[in-house]
Design a protein that fits this description.
mainly beta; 4-stranded antiparallel beta sheet; 43% strand; 155 residues; 6-stranded mixed beta sheet; Immunoglobulin-like; single chain
């Protein structure tokens, strides 16, 4: 189980120090933070939104390492709903030897609501072999779907 926090709209004021996450807001703001995700074509007047996602923690993850723990990290892909094309990806930091990682990391994505979805995949990092897949979740981005998603904890 993964925990995410959700809350208020994203604006230039909340970007500077607000406590909200997993919320969508205007396409303005973002000073001090790197915005990843969809890049509209130059000269386009496509309406986009900013989505701030705070990855809080993982709970009771699978034991994949020989000593009964895992070294988990989360990969978050912004994917187009039609065509399943990955627009951008980000990674959390790897948390060593734990089945209950606490990330408390925040990411800001530029999205087109209802045209993109987030795909979250948890992996166990391995030094010598391919990283082990631990689990996945996805959600189409739209104001009503984010607010009702059971994987998001509203705070």
């Amino acid at each position: 189980m993964l925990s995410f926090s959700g809350g208020e709209s994203l604006s230039s004021e909340s970007m500077a120090g607000g406590a909200a996450a997993a919320s969508s807001g205007d396409a303005a703001g973002g000073e001090g933070r790197r915005i990843v995700g969809y890049v509209p074509p130059e000269g386009s007047n496509e309406r986009t939104r900013l989505l701030r996602l705070k990855v809080v923690a993982g709970h009771n993850l699978a034991k994949k390492d020989i000593f009964g723990a895992s070294d988990p990290y989360l990969r978050i892909d912004l994917v187009s709903v039609l065509g399943e094309e990955v627009q951008d990806s980000v990674l959390t930091k790897t948390k060593k030897r734990t089945l209950n990682p606490k990330w408390d990391e925040e990411f800001v994505f530029r999205v087109k609501p209802h045209a993109h979805k987030l795909v979250l995949e948890v992996f166990d990092e391995n030094r010598l072999t391919r990283d082990d897949f631990l689990g996945e979740s996805s959600e189409i981005i739209g104001c009503s779907s984010l607010c009702q998603c059971p994987c998001f904890r509203h705070g």
